[in-house]
UniProtKB/TrEMBL annotation:
Keywords: Membrane, Signal, Transmembrane, Transmembrane helix. Residues 273-557 form the Predicted membrane protein YciQ-like C-terminal domain. This is Transmembrane signal peptide protein. Residues 591-602 have a biased composition (Polar residues). Residues 615-637 have a biased composition (Gly residues). Residues 591-637 are annotated as: Disordered. Residues 603-614 have a biased composition (Low complexity). Residues 25-216 form the DUF2207 domain. Residues 1-22 form the signal peptide.
Length: 637
């Protein structure tokens, strides 16, 4: 039994040993860093790999982050200058590209597969802006391996050299583990003269890394230049600076655009008018006042047709076990009336050949034709743009300008993480050019179609990218852009403008509406309004409906109609004519529903290297794995 047990243990050990040795991995990651007097550092990475043709197909991929944060948390763009690339001591083919916030170095030949074996790659590069300048010391805080490797690293080491032999290091620390880990399984030490710093760790797993930090006296490395200090100061304030410029600039732009294109002419003091202005029909009064066609205006015309004697509206109350409903019926009294306006004739025409019509969806064809005919006449009779300019196109242009300037703002205020500036600049140039073209009048269907296609292909993605980018911005940037967007909505809502003719008409319509709302009060003034009688009530009721003041108009006549025992010839019902507002509200819903077809329509049914870290006094023990500059990660390709 013991014999079999020994065999099993031996075989298991051999299998584990074989698997461990067959697995692709980094056997050794050794880095030498020379800190120059200028502040630039020269990095020499020697990476020994075991390749089995799975991950390392053509060679090694090294990824270095294109930005890091400075002491104040501002993003600093990082540029790498490659000095040499070697494999096993011999210069090797490579190519580079920037993508996903990384500078990627592809070492090897895409047309040649890498045979299984052990290979030593050497990458030498220089990189500026990696020294942290503190009040009493300076520091290098550097991610040696980075945390972006999906394979284990058996050994990792780093050696730091200062610019001259007399310079010495102060505190040194090493951090290992996953990104953000503050502990260390490695060692950090200085030679006897404190002129060389050594760091060493073994057994790093996938996405684990080594980060080192070493402090040294001020003056060993040149302090930041005036240009660098100015650049650092600008980066501190640029978020607030461009947020202020963008916010105030866009709000001022919208204000002056509104003042230029949307400010209404001055309307004089409103004086009550006792007759409909310009002898307009109820439909035209409502259309010009509301600047649009509404169901209330259509209902006003129908009431007017009834009051003029062409039809009579009757209502019947039907009760069931649980509900009570009012059924309306239209009875044709005069098939050839001669006192109707054009739009009232168009409304009445589909009804003229019938004696009685139930106001329900069973008669939808009649009411559909009546509404379409009425609508056609009303919209042709009056050109609303003679009275009111909506400036809808200006609103669209204002929104596109908001998007374009917003994209520029995102570029200028960018402080956090990598940004593909080339992509955003091309996007802004393209969308701005299209916006300018869209703002100009073009002739010919071909040009219009081309413009539409380009807008769909370019402007829609630009709009999407702009709003999607907001999720990655600071709260200040988001707040400013929300405020500007609210400003745009206010601008858009108020950009419509009355013409001089429209302002004069509105002035008189407001006076007429004022009278309809306050007729009883006006009896006491010196304007001598007409006497309130049932006849006056009927005459102006359709206008009150069109101007949506029928409730106020009706209340002023409640006592008068009751004393006169008002029984209109144009309406009869089971409950009598209790009040105009109840009648108008009830029949309006029925008439609106009666235009709807009751038949339902048919319908068809490699690993990312991660973000680079920041200076945080890592040499004093406040750092973490992945917290410094450099690092990144890599793999095979």
């Amino acid at each position: 039994m013991k014999k079999y047990f020994k065999i099993i243990v031996t075989v298991s050990f051999l299998l584990c040993f074989f698997f461990n040795n067959a697995q692709e991995r980094i056997l050794n990651f050794d880095t030498t860093i020379k800190i120059e007097h200028s502040g630039v550092i020269q990095v020499n990475e020697t990476i020994t790999i075991k390749a089995e043709g799975q991950l390392f197909v053509h060679g090694l991929l090294r990824q270095l982050p294109l930005n890091r944060k400075d002491i104040d948390g501002n993003a600093v763009d990082v540029g790498y200058t490659l000095q040499s690339i070697k494999k096993d001591g011999v210069s090797e083919n490579y190519f580079t590209k920037e993508a996903d916030g990384d500078f990627k170095i592809y070492i090897g030949d895409k047309d040649i597969d890498l045979p299984s074996g052990i290979y030593e790659y050497e990458i030498v590069y220089t990189v500026p802006f990696q020294i942290g300048y503190f009040d009493s010391y300076d520091e290098l805080y550097w991610n040696v391996t980075g945390n972006g490797w999906d394979i284990p690293i058996d050994k990792a080491s780093c050696t730091l050299y200062l610019p001259n032999e007399n310079a010495t290091f102060g505190n040194v620390n090493a951090y290992t583990g996953y990104e953000g880990d503050k502990g260390s399984q490695g060692t950090a030490s200085l030679d006897s003269n404190k002129t060389i710093a050594h760091f060493y760790v073994t057994g790093l797993g996938a996405t684990q890394g080594l980060t080192v930090a070493a402090s040294f006296d001020k003056g060993i490395v040149l302090p930041p230049s005036k240009i660098q200090e100015a650049s650092s100061f600008y980066k501190k304030i640029k978020n607030n600076l461009w947020s202020t410029v963008f916010g105030l600039g866009m709000l001022l732009f919208y204000f002056f655009q509104w003042k230029k294109k949307g400010k209404d002419p001055v309307i004089k003091t409103i004086v009550p008018e006792f007759r409909p202005p310009f002898d307009w029909s109820p439909a035209i009064v409502g259309y010009v006042y509301n600047r649009a066609v509404t169901d209330g205006i259509y209902m006003a015309s129908m009431v007017q047709v009834a009051i003029k004697g062409a039809i009579k509206i009757t209502s019947t109350i039907e009760k069931s076990l649980f509900t009570t409903s009012t059924v309306y019926q239209i009875e044709v009294l005069n098939a050839s009336p001669n006192n109707l306006s054009e739009e009232e004739k168009a409304l009445f025409k589909p009804m003229a050949s019938r004696k009685k019509i139930i106001v329900s969806q069973t008669s939808y064809r009649v009411f559909e034709k009546a509404y379409k005919g009425w609508l056609s006449v009303v919209t042709k009779k009056i050109n609303v743009e003679d009275y009111y300019i909506n400036n809808g196109w200006e609103k669209t242009i204002g929104f596109l300008i908001f998007i374009n300037v917003g994209l520029v703002f995102l570029i200028l205020s960018h402080t956090n993480g990598y940004m593909n500036y080339f992509f955003y600049i091309v996007l802004v140039i393209g969308s701005s050019s299209l916006t300018y073209w869209v703002s100009k009048t073009v002739k010919g269907s071909g040009w219009i179609i081309l413009r539409g296609i380009l807008c769909f292909m370019w402007l829609l993605p630009a709009i999407f990218i702009y709003f999607a980018s907001l999720f990655f911005r600071s709260w200040i940037e988001i707040g400013v852009q929300v405020a500007v967007f609210i400003g745009y909505l206010i601008y858009s809502f108020n950009l419509g403008k009355y013409t001089v003719k429209g302002a004069e008409s509105l002035e008189r319509l407001e006076g007429f509406k004022l009278y309809l709302e306050t007729a009883e009060k006006n009896k006491m003034n010196m304007l001598k309004p007409p006497e309130l009688t049932p006849a006056l009530f009927e005459e102006l009721l359709p206008y009150a409906v069109a101007l949506e003041v029928d409730v106020a108009w009706g209340k002023q006549f409640e006592t008068i109609l009751e004393l006169a025992k008002y029984d209109p010839s144009w309406y009869s019902g089971d409950d009598g004519f209790r009040n105009s507002s109840h009648f108008i509200s009830s029949i309006s819903k029925n008439v609106s529903n009666s235009r709807v077809d009751p038949t339902p329509s048919r319908s068809s049914s490699s690993s990312s290297s991660g973000s680079s870290g920041s200076w945080s006094g890592g040499s004093s023990g406040g750092g973490s794995s992945g917290g410094g500059g450099g690092g990144g990660g890599g793999g095979g390709w």
